[in-house]
């Protein structure tokens, strides 16, 4: 059993919970209100900026030159997507601060790059790829014609061949890391994957609630 097959099985409950989130359902059927979407986009722009730094760190930690290239390309793409998608949706970037959930998620990912295991950090960023592909594909199947869909460009970005190729590479890297790792490290990889998956749920839920800091 490969790491990715195993971890996909183990994370079935959180995956189902993500599909059932009101934010995700509304994104799929186009009924999500603009205010919540704009909040999400603003937070996601902040997320992607920090996520890009995590990917760039992985590029530096990789020992395989192909891995270095992949993470560096992903970091560049994260910044490009942030600028493209978010420039179209979010007007007032300067006014936005990281929500508690956004800060917790990116801080968690960054912390994984300082704990001495490239494999565990790779497992931690994998849901960012895999869950978005899975959600994007599911929404595409239910959305139909994206050109007339309120959130068509969002769905199109993640239900996309180029994105699918990067998901496949990230999965292959994780599987290769797990193959060469001891059982204890593989367990830590599963925990990192599960934790990041939960943060993905929380990130959409925070957008639905338009989460704020206490004061
Ligand atoms: C929160 C979050 N996770 C993953 C992705 C996909 O890169 C994204 N744009 N935002």
Distinct bound molecules: 4-amino-5-hydroxymethyl-2-methylpyrimidine
Described by strand count, sense and barrel closure, the largest sheet is: none
Determine the fraction of residues in helical runs and give it as a percent range.
over 70%
Number of helical regions: 10
Shape: globular
- Secondary structure tally: strands: 0
Give the helix/strand class. Answer: mainly alpha
Low-confidence segments, given as residue ranges, are: none
Fraction of residues in β-strands: under 5%
| Chain-averaged pLDDT | 94
* Cα-atom radius of gyration: 17 Å
**N-to-C series of helices and strands:** HHHHHHHHHH
Determine the N-to-C terminus distance.
48 Å
Itemize the secondary structure elements and their pairings.
Blueprint: H1 3-10, H2 12-19, H3 22-29, H4 34-61, H5 65-89, H6 100-112, H7 118-143, H8 152-158, H9 161-179, H10 183-209
Helix pairs in contact: 2-10, 3-7, 4-5, 4-6, 4-10, 6-10, 7-8, 7-9, 7-10
Quick rundown:
With 215 residues, this protein is mainly alpha-helical. It is 79% helix and 0% strand.
Q: If you had to describe this structure to a student in words, what would you say it looks like?
A:
With 215 residues, this protein is an all-alpha fold. 79% of the residues lie in helices and 0% in strands. The chain has 10 helices and no strands. α4 (34-61) runs antiparallel to α10 and α7 packs antiparallel against α9 (161-179). It starts with a helix and ends in a 6-residue tail after the last helix. The mean pLDDT is 94. It binds 4-amino-5-hydroxymethyl-2-methylpyrimidine (HMH). 4-amino-5-hydroxymethyl-2-methylpyrimidine binds at residues 44, 47-48, 128, 132, 200, 203. 4-amino-5-hydroxymethyl-2-methylpyrimidine (HMH) binds next to α4, α7 and α10.
């Amino acid at each position: 059993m490969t790491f990715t097959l195993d971890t996909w099985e183990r994370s079935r409950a959180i995956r189902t919970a993500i599909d059932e989130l009101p934010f995700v359902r509304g994104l799929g059927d186009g009924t999500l209100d603009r205010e919540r979407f704009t909040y999400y986009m603003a937070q996601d722009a902040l997320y992607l900026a920090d996520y890009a730094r995590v990917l760039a760190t992985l590029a530096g930690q990789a020992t395989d030159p192909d891995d270095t290239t992949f993470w560096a390309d992903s970091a560049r793409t994260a910044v490009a997507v942030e600028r493209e998608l978010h420039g179209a949706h979010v007007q007032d970037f300067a006014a936005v601060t990281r929500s508690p959930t956004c800060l917790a998620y990116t801080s968690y990912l960054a912390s994984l790059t300082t704990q001495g295991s490239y494999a565990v950090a790779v497992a931690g960023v994998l849901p960012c790829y895999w869950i978005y592909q899975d959600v994007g594909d599911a929404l595409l199947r239910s959305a139909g014609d994206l050109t007339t869909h309120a959130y068509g460009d969002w769905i199109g970005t993640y239900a996309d061949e180029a994105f699918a190729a990067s998901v496949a590479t990230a999965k292959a890297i994780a599987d290769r890391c797990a193959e060469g790792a001891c059982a204890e490290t593989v367990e830590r990889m599963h925990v990192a994957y599960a934790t990041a998956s939960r943060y993905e749920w929380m990130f959409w839920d925070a957008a639905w609630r338009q989460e704020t800091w206490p004061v």
